[in-house]
Design goal:
single chain; 70 residues; alpha+beta; Nucleotidyltransferase, domain 5; three-stranded antiparallel β-sheet; two-stranded antiparallel ribbon; 1 helix; 5 strands
């Protein structure tokens, strides 16, 4: 998925203080959605819902997305 995301793909992110969750879906021609991957990773770089270290936060997001791609 990293190489090319189709125009019918959608990604949802929940970035929380304790974990980051990524969900990847494929939109079908009839408008329905097929979930093709879900990933989560321990959240780092956030404190009480506020980003305190952007690099750590980005890394947590990337790892959750990578897990969803498996």
């Amino acid at each position: 998925m990293s190489e090319a995301v189709g125009e019918n793909m959608i990604v949802g992110l929940d970035i929380g203080t304790s974990k980051v969750v990524a969900i990847v879906g494929d939109i079908n021609p009839d408008g329905s959605l097929d979930i093709v991957g879900i990933g989560s990773h321990r959240s780092r770089g956030l404190k009480k819902g506020t980003v305190v270290n952007i690099e750590s936060t980005v890394e947590s997001i990337q790892r959750a997305i990578e897990e969803a791609e498996l």
